[in-house]
Design a protein that fits this description.
- The protein has 225 residues and is α/β, with parallel strands linked by helices.
- Helices cover 28% and strands 26% of the residues.
- The protein has 5 helices and 12 strands.
- The chain has a 7-stranded mixed β-sheet, with no helix packed on it. Strands 6-7-8-10-9 form a 5-stranded mixed β-sheet, with no helix packed on it.
- The longest helix has 18 residues, at 123-140.
- The chain is globular.
- The mean pLDDT is 85.
Length: 225
């Protein structure tokens, strides 16, 4: 049976943080056609003390009232929802990963934090770092998140991506967020099958998202004007 659904994948919104792009996100959700919304982690900034606005409330209402399937993949910044995994709350299905077949290809979507190692995986350490980061961003109006991402990019190696896709080689398309680095990697494996890795990016710096339609996967950037 052909899957004609249009899927919209967004991650790393960090709603409640100092520099999240809530107005741009609202524009995306109101002006994009989709049948299924996949929230791929770090949607709400629980690790810092979030500050919600009227735009945040409109987003919550928009997601709550949308008559579409909504999947929420719990990330490391919103793991307060960890106990919801496997349950449907308010019409939203909470999961750790989401798999489906589309266009004859197997898709797997995760947040991506499980591929970190070292200090970043120490829960109390990352909470402390996030608290300090939140104070600096709000007191000095500095977008520290973007600075940290750019710093990581300079040190990053392609080998890490190959490690991730190797661990997910049973999937034809693997999509994740977490790194805030929008990117796509397409290759042909030893069996002549086309494989795809996509990182959704974020809504702090890039305002990027992924669409899945008619068997095609597209990484897109929202026009913020």
């Amino acid at each position: 049976m052909k899957d004609n659904r249009v899927r919209l994948v967004i991650s790393d919104l960090h709603l409640g943080s100092a520099h999240s792009k809530e107005k741009e996100l609202e524009d995306l959700l109101r002006n994009t056609e989709y049948d299924e919304l996949i929230l791929a982690g770090d949607i709400i900034e629980f690790l810092r003390k979030p500050t919600f606005t009227e735009a945040t409330s409109r987003l919550f209402n928009l997601i709550d009232t949308v008559e579409k399937d909504v999947y929420y993949i719990v990330g490391n910044h919103d793991d307060a929802f960890h106990s919801f995994v496997g349950k449907t709350v308010g019409g939203i299905k909470f999961v750790k990963e989401y798999e489906f077949f589309h266009g004859g290809r197997k898709f797997r979507i995760e947040h991506g934090d499980i591929y970190d190692s070292g200090l970043i995986n120490w829960n109390y350490t990352i909470q402390f770092i996030s608290l300090i980061q939140n104070m600096i961003e709000r007191i000095f109006n500095i977008d520290l998140t973007t600075w940290l991402v750019n710093r990581k990019l300079k040190k990053r190696k392609l080998k890490r991506i190959w490690d991730i896709v190797k661990w997910n080689e049973d999937a034809d398309v693997f999509i994740m967020g977490h790194t805030h680095c929008p990117e796509v990697l397409i290759w042909v494996d030893k069996n002549e099958k086309i494989k795809t890795y996509v990182n959704t990016g974020d809504w702090i710096t890039n305002c990027t998202y992924v669409t899945i339609k008619d068997g095609q996967v597209r990484l897109r950037k929202w026009n913020t004007g």
